[in-house]
Design brief:
heterodimer; A: 169 residues; mainly alpha; elongated; disordered C terminus; B: 356 residues; alpha+beta; Phosphorylase Kinase, domain 1; Aminoglycoside 3'-phosphotransferase, Chain: A, domain 2; five-stranded antiparallel β-sheet; 15% strand
Chain lengths: 169, 356
């Protein structure tokens, strides 16, 4: 299980126990909250992030690494991972997340290199093309995360109001 | 902000060790508050109507009534910097400087009552200021307020910003916030870069690359001023058609005044609208600001600071994620902020394209 997932569940449980239960004098409501805490503890044992979107991000990264390898041929560049980096049917989300995060670090190194003076001096056209390709690939990766992100509730979250009315000063 | 980037754990790349969450106990704060106010006033002080306010993601805010023989009954606000909060470790100095230096200026602020950096009785950095009657408009959703009313408020909002930027910072304590020889506005960027580079934050390649670009391409300001740092809809109190207090001075620093202008115009803080408060066109905002402040705002400089605003927003979101995941600050609102990162980073990439 990823640390983030476990921490999220722990945080929800703590928020319910620390901030909701002490302010509820209704037995039924308290029963609902404790049931929710029980269910969350169950989820913590059984569930995890979905592996699918993470695998898709890793695949996009691999495509970018392969393309940069071709474009940077003959140039001195940061190390590019050998692809594919995930073999077989890996389903451990924490392990895939670690591969994705390591891939992000490599993409960052390559992007900084491609937009730097040394790469421009070596081959301006290739460096520019690599920078564009990397920016596009990273944005495509973000789109996958956006697809699994719920609609923003900042107004309700910040003000604690069910219908999103104005917060009071 | 530089303080946020300089925690003791920044020097190690070791995996974070879960720690016991530090809980700010409201009852203990209330008891300590009574002791503190009794001590500074020399008169036994009773605290009533004490309650935590939900607004704000960083300092913990309490509203209360203090009653004593010396001062009678006063409605006050206490703000406490928790040791594991969004920008911990906290300094009260920017807020204290603001409330002291701006009192009686064209920038309305609540009167400062007391402050302690070392925490004194309460145990955390804190300050106490007067309570200001009025409403805080919500930045994230369109309100039902009359558009003419909103226009009047939006114009005041811009005029007050211009007043802030007309103040000579060398004549205020803010000048002591400047460190080293690096340009103040570049220091501000460097602070957020350091924050994002902390080993426990998730790495976003576009932020790393974009941070370097901002650092290398930061324009020279025509004038260096006090910058509020979080000047937006939602950080002021209005009462009967007047803005009566500008709030939340924790990110105040010296720098380029156009930073505040770009931050205020972010659609995020204007119910997703490109218009300020959903009513004032950008061109009108810029005209009004230029005329009131005497500071020129070019399209290019504004584009730079609009990109910087998104970069700063991303860094703040990451501070929230860190406070929740690493420092175990149990506020679920901070955990939820992580979900905003993909959209902010994509918007930042587009803004950089426009600024380059």
């Amino acid at each position: 299980m990823s640390a983030s997932f476990e921490r999220l569940i722990d945080g929800i449980i703590d928020a319910l126990q620390s901030h909701v239960v002490p302010h509820s004098n209704d037995d039924f409501v308290r029963g609902q909250v404790f049931s929710a805490i029980y269910a969350l503890n169950g989820l913590k044992l059984a569930a995890d992030w979905k592996a699918g979107p993470l695998l898709e991000q890793v695949r996009l990264q691999d495509d970018a690494f392969a393309a940069v390898t071709r474009l940077a041929d003959g140039m001195i560049h940061p190390e590019i991972p050998i692809t594919p980096r995930v073999q077989g049917n890996m389903s451990n989300a924490a392990a895939i997340e670690a591969v994705r995060d390591a891939g992000d670090r490599r993409l960052g190194e390559l992007l900084l290199w491609a937009s730097g003076e040394a790469a421009r001096a070596a081959n301006r056209d290739a460096a520019t093309e690599i920078e564009r390709l990397l920016r596009r690939a990273i944005c495509d990766q973000l789109k996958i995360e956006l697809a699994t992100t719920p609609k923003s509730m900042l107004q309700q979250i910040a003000g604690g109001e069910r219908d999103g009315g104005a917060a009071q000063g | 902000m530089l303080e946020a980037a300089q925690r003791s754990d920044d020097v190690t790349a070791a995996a974070p060790v879960p720690t016991r969450p530090v809980v700010v106990n409201d009852d203990a704060v209330r008891t300590a508050l009574a002791l503190h106010l009794s001590r500074i006033s020399g008169s036994g002080t009773e605290i009533t109507s004490f309650g935590r306010k939900s607004s704000g993601f960083s300092w913990i805010t309490y509203a209360f009534v203090a009653r004593s023989a010396a001062d009678g009954e006063r409605k006050l606000i206490l703000r406490v910097g928790p040791p594991n909060g969004l920008f911990a470790p906290y300094s009260v100095l920017p807020q204290v400087f603001a409330l002291q230096a701006l009192a009686g200026s064209g920038v309305p602020v609540p009167a400062l009552v007391s402050s302690e950096q070392d925490g004194a009785e309460i145990g955390f950095p804190f300050f106490i200021c007067e309570h200001i009657e009025g409403d805080v408009p919500a930045p994230w959703a369109a309100s039902e307020l009359d558009p003419d009313h909103k226009r009047a408020i939006a114009r005041q909002f811009v005029e007050i910003l211009a007043s802030l930027h007309r103040i000579d910072p060398d004549a205020t304590p803010f000048v002591s916030l400047q460190r080293g020889d690096e340009r103040a506005e570049v220091q501000a960027i460097a602070g957020w870069r350091a924050s994002l580079a902390r080993p426990t934050a998730r790495y976003y390649p576009l932020l790393d690359w974009g941070g370097r670009w901002l650092h290398d391409n930061c324009p020279q300001p025509s004038r260096r001023t006090i910058v509020h740092g979080d000047y937006r809809i939602g950080n002021f109190i209005e009462h009967e058609g007047r803005i009566t207090a500008i709030l939340d001075w924790e990110l105040t620093h010296l720098g380029d005044p156009r930073e505040d202008l770009a931050w205020a115009m972010m659609p995020t803080f204007n119910a997703r609208s490109r218009k300020l408060y959903g009513v004032l066109e950008r061109a009108e905002v810029i005209d009004l600001y230029q005329n009131a402040s005497g500071i020129a705002v070019s399209d290019k400089s504004l584009a730079f600071y609009e990109a910087y605003a998104l970069y700063q927003a991303a860094a703040i979101q990451m501070c929230a994620v860190r406070a929740f995941e690493v420092d175990r600050f149990n506020d679920m609102r901070l955990a939820v902020m992580a979900s905003q990162m993909p959209s902010i980073v994509r918007a930042f990439e587009r803004a950089l394209e426009a600024a380059a």
